[in-house]
Amino acid sequence: MTQTPAHQQTSAHQHPALTATDPELAALVTAEERLQADTLRLIPSENYVSTAVLEASGTVLQNKYSEGYPGRRYYEGQQNIDQVERLAVARAKALFGTDHANVQPYSGSPANLAVYLAFAEPGDTVMGMALPMGGHLTHGWGVSATGKWFRGVQYAVRQDTGLVDFDAVRELALKERPKLIFCGGTALPRTIDFAAFAEIARESGAVLVADIAHIAGLVAGGAHPSPVPYADVISTTTHKTLRGPRGAMLLAREEHAKAIDKAVFPGLQGGPHNQTTAAIAVALHEAAQPSFRSYAHAVVANAKALAEALLARGFDLVSGGTDNHLVLMDLTSKDVPGKVAAKALDRAGIVVNYNTVPYDPRKPFDPSGVRIGTPSLTSRGLGTEHMAAVADWIDRGVRAAGTGDEDALPKIRGEVAELMTAFPAPGLPTA
Ligand SMILES: *Cc1c(COP(=O)(O)O)cnc(C)c1O
Q1: Is residue 213 lining ligand 1, measured as CB closer than 6 Å?
Q2: Could you tell me the domains of the chain?
Q3: The whole model's pTM is what?
Q4: Model confidence pLDDT, tens digit, residues 17-74
Q5: Sheet arrangement for strand 100-102
Q6: Distance 190 CA to ligand 1 centre (A)
């Protein structure tokens, strides 16, 4: 029997049951597989999970209810599920070197909400980086439940350096005496100084929460300093640089273990998503391998090379470059709004997101910046030698956006797709 070439495969080959039951949905999945294969995905919070992680996420562990924790469940039949969760917890503790790990939070936002429930009362003051400076909604920003139910006070980065202004953070913390101080964010291209935050948290009597959602994989792989010696609680997603399924974890010192566990269940959630717990365990196993250390360092090397190549093409970068996986481009000097650039790049097969830059004169829904990152392209095997080409495509795409040269975009898209064909990713069509 001859095999159908990959590029001629349809959803019927890859998802036979799904195609038979629901061809409409199957076609959408197949289209997404094609899109992920053919485009250059530069969204820094995205990644490509391994085949093993994909398989674990798609198991019958899905079918099981397991409210509670291993050995203390409210349902019977946990012979295997308990072992799955214990494995995930043990691997999380070993990988990050923490006393305690809770792997049940459904995602990063609920994980952070559990932290509030564990350590604060409604109306208490909490402190985090302002969203437009690169913080996260759940760090007490006004439109989030965390900013409505708690009194959020925000710190900033310095306008001249793009770096956290620790004098201002200390002053604010001592004045406001927050219950929680969050460090970490979604658009921070530089190393987080956990020690400096810990010092301020100690002086002001706050619980320090390191939200390493973006950089967890870099921390695990030794490409970013660890918050473990400094933070009281560490919150992270599992699906960004850590390259696991969509999910989250809370890591803490033993003294906070009970409060964290009680807050996640029964405080905030019901049954854990066991198929996700299994996939987290797999991802943690992968992240403990030497090859993952190489991956984490390659992510950073690629981001630095891409930043250099963009600077060489006259782009302004917030903080002048990057220490991690992320580059925040300020397009003000190019006279192209971030959203216009992002939409043009999307038509060119380069997937980014528009983003505010610190002190952005434009509105959050129409900001000056574009946020890019290298976790996904590094997972596909692109190296520093490819970053000049990536920067060229971005440059041409942004120029085309500025001049309205629509015809330039499909041409770039073709070049991108041609390169990406040589760099397959798990679960995606290969040609
Ligand atoms: C992504 C992210 C979150 C939220 O994660 P979700 O899974 O999208 O809810 C929280 N904090 C930071 C810093 C993040 O980058």
Answers
A1: yes
A2: 56-287 (3.40.640.10), 298-421 (3.90.1150.10)
A3: 0.96
A4: 999 999 999 999 999 999 999 999 999 999 999 999 999 999 999 999 999 999 999 9
A5: 100-102, 248-252, 233-237, 207-211, 180-183, 125-129, 151-155
A6: 17
